[in-house]
Fold this sequence. Notes:
Layout: H1 8-18, E1 29-35, H2 40-49, E2 53-55, E3 58-65, E4 68-75, E5 80-85, H3 93-96, E6 101-104, E7 106-107, E8 110-111, H4 120-127, H5 132-138
Antiparallel strand pairs: 1-5, 1-6, 2-5, 3-4, 7-8
Amino acid sequence: MVPTAKSPSLIAAASRVFSHRGELHSGERWYVVRALAKREHGAAAQLAGQGFRVFLPKVSRNVRHARKTKAVHAPAFPGYLFVALDLRRDRWRSINGTFGVMSLIMQKSVQRPFPAASSRRSLIMWTSPVFAALIAISWRGKPFA
């Protein structure tokens, strides 16, 4: 049986990783992962099940369907999530083979860490909607391109 994003064990693993609020360990940096369309939550759960620390920033949005409006939590950056990695210690290549993941963002076969994010607190600051325009500008006009 192939585990899915709704498997109880993956959900439990994801909730442990999502609730982690600590600083980065020595040698760790935040890296950007490109997920498949509408599969960010599943990819995050799969990565968490493999033991990676995952951060999926979310924003509250109002969705209207059938004349009803409800608030939902959607990814702040559709198609992207963040993983804390120490490249000397972690098996980062397994990220590219994870269900729901397209690839780790790289530049000429070298992993590219997220700029100016030395802790989760600074990552949250950088990924807040207020700073989304700053990120887009600093990454050549496209988010994480």
